[in-house]
Design a protein that fits this description.
single chain, 280 residues, alpha/beta, eight-stranded parallel beta sheet, two-stranded antiparallel ribbon
């Protein structure tokens, strides 16, 4: 991993080693029950624990993207995020906060009214065609993830004639170029593990992860307790920490800049080990 910097509302934050992004879900139906934080008090507790364990960023989500999840209106998403973001700021006033949303209006509200610093868009701009212009006008870092379709249709859209890695690269490349032309200077690329990918394709993508260095942008990897672990090993999400850590370590060896995780301590230990290995 090469060091990278993000402009967080005029403050240049530099990361000389891979960053750990802690997941906080203010939803009742996230696929991993251990990530659900439904009250401000519980959010504060989880955030303080995450920071103590070494989190560099907090990612707050209020819309579950798992297949079959209930639809959530924009108003309800904002209501949940308002409470969650306030609790995060109370617990950790200085930590960069990312908001996991695909809606441009929600993104704008979170940045202008609730102090969010980064927008994390699972759809890479495909579910709201105003997202790119919104991020450009807000001048905030943007996590560009690869996905096809919607959370309910994505697993029927896994045909990549030239291979999954080539397909993902070719679909992200024009978006990276468009964002650059629009003046979005801080783009983070996420290949979208588990989104419009079969089990085998997820592991091919992991194997080829170094190819994404061609973008010259920070690379985010989010595999925490996902089905690429549980389906392969026949375990539940609650039993998937060890395998998640293995995959995170492999991702770090292949150039991951940010690990988005439910379990901060394990991810931080993986980062520390890989960092030490590269420095001795």
């Amino acid at each position: 991993m090469k060091p990278f910097s993000l402009n967080i509302k005029g403050r240049l934050v530099t990361f000389c080693r891979p960053a750990v992004m802690a997941i906080i879900n203010v939803t009742p139906d996230s696929f991993y029950a251990g990530s659900r934080s439904l009250t401000p008090g519980l959010v504060e507790e989880r955030v303080r624990t995450a920071v103590a364990e070494g989190a560099d960023m907090i990612d707050v989500g209020a819309y579950s993207s798992r297949p079959g999840a209930d639809d959530v209106s924009a108003d309800e998403e904002i209501r949940r995020l308002a409470s969650g973001l306030e609790a995060v700021r109370k617990a950790a006033p200085d930590i960069p906060i990312s908001v996991d949303t695909f809606r441009a209006d929600v993104a704008r509200w979170c940045v202008t009214e609730s102090g969010a610093d980064i927008i994390n868009d699972i759809s890479g701009g495909t579910l709201d065609d105003r997202m790119f212009e919104t991020v450009a006008s807000l001048r905030v870092p943007y996590i560009l993830m690869h996905m096809r379709g919607t959370p309910s249709t994505m697993q029927s859209l896994t045909d990549y004639p030239d291979g999954v890695t080539t397909g993902v690269m070719s679909e992200l490349a024009p978006k990276v170029e468009r964002l650059a032309l629009m003046g979005v200077s801080d783009v983070i690329v996420d290949p979208g593990f588990g989104f419009a990918k079969t089990l085998e394709q997820n592991y091919r993508l992991l194997r080829d992860l170094e190819i994404f260095e061609r973008f010259g942008l920070p690379l985010l990897v989010g595999v925490s307790r996902k089905s690429m672990v549980t389906r392969l090993l026949g375990v539940s999400a609650a039993e998937a920490l060890n395998a998640t850590t293995v995959i995170n370590t492999l991702a770090l060896e292949r150039g991951a800049s940010i690990l988005r995780v439910h379990d901060v301590k394990a991810a931080r230990e993986a980062v520390d080990i890989i960092t030490c290995l590269n420095e001795v």
